[in-house]
Amino acid sequence: MNPLNLVVIGTGALGKHHARILSTLPGVRLAAIAELNEAAGRDLADKYGARWVADYREVLGEVDAAVVAVPTQAHWAVSRDLLLRRIPILVEKPLAADLNQARQLVSLARQNETLLQVGHVERFNAAFVEGRRHIGSPKYIRGERFSPFAFRSTDIGVVHDMMIHDIDLVLSLVKSDLVGVEAFGVQLLGHNEDCVQARLRFKNGCIADLSANRVSPVQKRHMQVWSCTGCTDIDFGSREVAHYAPTDLLRFGQCPVDRARQPGVSIDTLKKEVFESYIHVDKLEVPASDALTAELTEFVECLRSDKRPQVAGEEALAALTVADRVLASVAQHQWSGDSTGPVGQVLLRESDRLRKAA
User: Fold this and answer.
1) How far is residue 222's CA from residue 322's CA, in Å, rounded to a whole number?
2) Cβ neighbours of residue 336 under 8 Å, at least 6 residues apart?
3) What is the pLDDT of residues 289-316, one digit of tens each?
4) Residue of 209, 165, 216 whose CA lies nearest to 186
5) Which fold has domain 124-289+320-357?
6) What is the three-class DSSP state of 350?
7) What distance in Å separates the CA atoms of residue 160 and residue 355, rounded to the nearest whole number?
8) The predicted structure's pLDDT at residue 189
9) CATH code, residues 4-122+291-308
10) What's the pTM?
11) 4-122+291-308 and 124-289+320-357: same fold?
């Protein structure tokens, strides 16, 4: 089996990890690193035995596929160039800087019958993979994604940078039409929103509350899903998963609240019995695995077998569509009626962007 020749375009925070992992995957040859910064590009190329080029177009005749890890504002131009040449791509999330660009890329991939995979890497987080196996039809989802300000991805706001991960996960779980979005947000350090709170309401009655904050003193990536099977608690960072479900005693036995009303019953004993007799707690075993490696492995499998990836252009476009509805709601939210301060200014800019994109 001949190795697949791949090029990584962009060596920022994620591009360097793509290069590192691809250089180790069986059946893959990291043929080139495309990076405008010569020092950074040459250093990485030398490290993994690849060729450095400043312009990715120099090697397009020598590669079988590409990973696009350039800044979001350049996703459309680079990805379009590759898809026009029928070169399969894995492009980092979000798919593009706006919906029109994203729609064009999805349409182009279809027309040219070329693989378009998008890097929603949390789909491959081992904690989520294990947790979703225990989730029935979701009724309520709460997602929290907080991090200190990293001074990267400053060309986009926290919705496209962080919240879009949870939007994609929610859409993969709920499988229902979105009927309402309520959101508000604030700008703190840059030119885009840094903290956003959103509520998504679905046709089947499910509600998802999502919080994203990239100016947080603590790091947190957590999701809690209430469904017909119980409550599943997923920690993406520590990769810990717990599933809570009522026992048969609670479902078919005596109500513990009624027991508490009986004379002489020890409340302290009842408290201890809640998570022993009435609610079963299952700490799920999560295998040790790297999400980015799993994502790239799927990309390679799709290249070889022509199968469809978990997150193709259509799924990424759906997430981006919801993200824009969140941003539209943020833009409409009046924070204390003040349009002169930093919060008001970012809302006005977002309103203007959405108006021009319409």
Assistant:
1) 20
2) none
3) 999 999 999 999 999 998 999 999 999 9
4) 216
5) Dihydrodipicolinate Reductase; domain 2 (3.30.360)
6) helix
7) 18
8) 87
9) 3.40.50.720
10) 0.89
11) no
